[in-house]
Amino acid sequence: MRSSRLATVAATGALVVLLSGxxxxxxxxxxxxxxxxxxxxxxxxxxxxxLSGMVAVGNRIYGVGDSGxxxxxxxxxxxxxxxxxxxxxxxxxxxxxxxWYDGSLILADIGDNLRTRETVAFxxxxxxxxxxxxHRATYxxxxxxxxxxxxxRSGRVFVVTKELFGTSSIYTPAQGQSISAxxxxxxxxxxxxxxxxxxxxxxxxxxxxGAVSADGSVVALRNYSDVYLYRVGExxxxxxxxxxxxxxxxTPYQPQGESVTxxxxxxxxxxxxxxxxxxxxxxxxxxxxEMALASQNGESAGEESSNAAVWGIAGGVVVIAIGGGVxxxxxxxx
Length: 334
What we know:
Largest sheet: 8 strands, mixed
Distance between the termini: 12 Å
Keywords: Membrane, Signal, Transmembrane, Transmembrane helix
Number of helices: 3
Signal peptide: 1-25
CATH class: Mainly Beta
Transmembrane segments: 308-328
Oligomer: single chain
Shape: globular
Number of domains: 1
CATH architecture: 6 Propeller
């Protein structure tokens, strides 16, 4: 039986969250002509209230919640109607993202808010048969919280950490194995690829989801206010993320935006948790892959992030005063 518990972490004074790249430091470069996000459809199923990861396959979108809501993967059509529920047969700790490779869903069990996990894991799930396999992994430098996973066309996995302070790092299996070649159950050691580049020297952190286009040419990383689109060259995803100059595109307001995926047509779809509000719509950016490939440098696609405006973020710093305690939900290690 799954077990969960709620821990109260005592907090005094104020918690200062430095969002830096998350809030979107403003670029002085000219603003390129780009498209804008538009509503795609609005979910109604309460199983999507904690939507944390998405991946589009054909005319279906698979979605999963995070810790406490990750026992089932939901299969949606492009009208946000749930057509199937796929149980996760392996008890996860905290699934935070979804990917697709060679006919299987890749569930990224990489969440670690308290940074206490000895291992993270990738669960491969066959949506047709419901069978799954577990591949544990270890970081070379201690625990990290992460919510974004990328899988390239060869099946190699990349994890992008979620940092409150400083810049995110990228990790991948040390021997470069594909997801299907990882030890079961492992663990397989990860190696640090490097630090995430934003192309303009600003810090980039708080990333909550990632995706790779169907042709492998573009990578998307999102945080709570923006999407970063990276062109992938011959040197692969690692080089694109550490050396590239992404196109930064502000996202529309979402209560807690944590999911992103490409359609096979090259559009970009983003989703959000509800955070106690009505279920928010999925939004789509038409032609996102073409837009990223046409970009000649890592210019911002908007002078101001819409989420940053909503939250009143100035200079990339938010001070959240908390009187009392911070409630942190976590679950047991496997």
